[in-house]
Design brief:
148 residues, Protein-Tyrosine Phosphatase, Chain A, 6-stranded mixed beta sheet, two-stranded antiparallel ribbon, 41% helix, globular
Length: 148
């Protein structure tokens, strides 16, 4: 897990967890119920159980923001994002599906509050690290300008 920094009094972290056991490990490492979880499409070149991914994240998150854009194949798949949201249906977390990580980053600021923790999870942190991180952080910086 990589600590990126503090943006508008929100601690931002970047992690590559994307299977249930890894997600549990990552999300349990935070001693907070104020997690804003930003998820890139859990599929890479292999389909994953996105409903299970959503179920796991829903146990920890205050807000779930899932991008349908597959950072590995460079294809948009809204069904993937919606499946993650579907898996979290029993969670009280606010659930948002979006088209890319720039918008996900922006929404992480909009739907969080000072003191919250923003954490990215997903395979794009492995398969497309630089580009994904740039897009998410550009969105977070834009969100910091737009939302108080």
């Amino acid at each position: 897990m990589e600590y990126i920094g503090n943006y508008k009094d929100r601690e931002v972290h970047f992690d590559a967890a994307f299977v249930p056991a890894g997600l549990i490990n990552t999300l349990e490492s935070f001693d907070s119920k104020n997690l804003i979880v930003v998820v890139d499409n859990p599929d890479s070149t292999n389909p994953r159980d996105k409903v299970k991914v959503g179920e796991v994240i829903g146990k920890y998150a205050k807000v779930i923001i899932c991008s349908g854009y597959n950072e590995t194949t460079k294809k948009f798949d809204v069904k993937a994002a919606n499946d993650v949201i579907k898996g979290a249906q029993k969670s009280s977390a606010k659930k948002l599906a979006t088209e890319d990580m720039f918008i996900a980053g922006e929404l992480a600021i909009k739907h969080s509050a000072p003191g919250d923790i923003v954490v990215h999870v997903g395979p794009g942190a492995i398969t497309n690290y630089d580009d994904l991180k740039f897009k998410m952080m550009s969105g977070i910086k834009e969100g910091c300008k737009k939302y108080d």
